[in-house]
Amino acid sequence: xxxxxxxxxxxxxxxxxxxxxxxxxxxxxxxxxxxxxxxxxxxxxxxxxxxxxxxxxxxxxxxxxxxxxxxxxxxxxxxxxxxxxxxxxxxxxxxxxxxxxxxxxxxxxxxxxxxxxxxxxxxxxxxxxxxxxxxxxxxxxxxxxxxxxxxxxxxxxxxxxxxxxxxxxxxxxxxxxxxxxxxxxxxxxxxxxxxxxxxxxxxxxxxxxxxxxxxxxxxxxxxxxxxxxxxxxxxxxxxxxxxxxxxxxxxxxxxxxxxxxxxxxxxxxxxxxxxxxxxxxxxxxxxxxxxxxxxxxxxxxxxxxxxxxxxxxxxxx
Length: 317
Hints:
The protein is mainly alpha-helical. The chain has helices at residues 8-11, 31-51, 56-74, 81-89, 98-112, 119-129, 140-149, 154-168, 173-188, 222-254, 263-272, 287-299; strands at residues 276-277, 304-305, 314-316.
């Protein structure tokens, strides 16, 4: 079996955690404190991004799933993470995943491509997000370049892009959160963005004055709220990574012992994807062989079954 794996020392890296003192405890109204918390959290996340563990693809895909579920809630859709995962993984190879699945496609694209966006990329992303194109959106790539060029701190640059989208097209809120993750990656010089911020968009950080009020992009306190969202999002992303590490380590440890033909391809997919179907078929792996392989890996604690179903099972680290 030819399994090209990275040395165990890299797979089993210790995932940094956001220090307890860098997490907000209750309401934070001081913008300096909010910026301090964001900076501390981003330092921990930056360490993981730059370590680039072999399971980073699965990590980003899982974060993209959480972001897509948050986007679905924004648009009033009922699909949760499980439904989105099914729509994506169980679709025909050339099939349309549907409106909710296209939301997932947008956030998966975010985590799979180098940061940066031009007008053509912006138009295709709007199509995935179900956002109608308007002339005002065409200026956003230049605004992103301007924000990066003036060296504004990453969370504040993200807040500025959210504000720019809200000004250009108030109904394009999803695009603003998608671009905010792009801006973080560009400002921090990450090789790939981390799908992050939209999950925090309905958090207490954005609670405005008055019952049920939400901060708008031009409200006082919005920049501080984005800083808190960055801190909370970074902590959540690191917790997600910490959940993946034990299974990824066991998967790498048992890989050389597997004798199933095509096991190497399945393992490579598990490191890159949020979920792999239990009926996976490749040139070397039959459906029956895949079922036996995943059942064994689950017994060894190297993967987990994600659906709880007796059929159409999905597996991931």
